[in-house]
Amino acid sequence: MRTLVPKHPLLLLLLLLLLLPPPTLPKWNRFGISMDGFSAEGQKAFLDYLEEIYGTGPTRPPGKKKFLQKILVEEEMPLYMDDYCSYNVMYKNVHYRHRCVPEHYFLNISYEAFENICYSRPVVCKDGSKRCRKGYLLIEGVYCILTSGARMPNCHYKSIVKTGYPVITCRWNNDIQNFIPDYIDNLVPGG
Fold this sequence. Notes:
Blueprint: H1 9-19, H2 40-54, H3 64-71, H4 84-91, E1 103-108, H5 111-117, E2 122-123, E3 132-134, E4 139-148, E5 156-173, E6 178-189
Antiparallel strand pairs: 1-4, 2-3, 3-5, 4-5, 5-6
């Protein structure tokens, strides 16, 4: 009786492979990271962390608290300090997905004055769109421009004290049925 081994070695190899258990592949998440070695709690915590950093997250309505935290100056700190921007950008957690923002403003004005600007006439923004509103009162603020760094906490800014008219964007908030300040576009010199 003849054997099939010499004529069909590949067939024999395939039959032997069927006897082995299938290999287990690592579990990959949508971020392309293997989750082997993580407990169930660790996987959930790590995925939540990745979602917070890389995900777009839910669209949040603009809010007074966020605006006050990121825009208004600290009363205790003098505006003329050289590291005013570097310190406050870090302290107030101003970033975009942990990347340094190229520019930012800290202004010395009340929130109510910002709300009133939302009802002034539209003006052209720096990007050319006509979504901005210009204030009527001269205010003092600090213009921060990125000098080095790409990701938090390595962002370093040059601080420039300016006096001018604030140019801001506003967004509609459905909860309070009112426009609220959203972003400082510019501080136009008075003259």
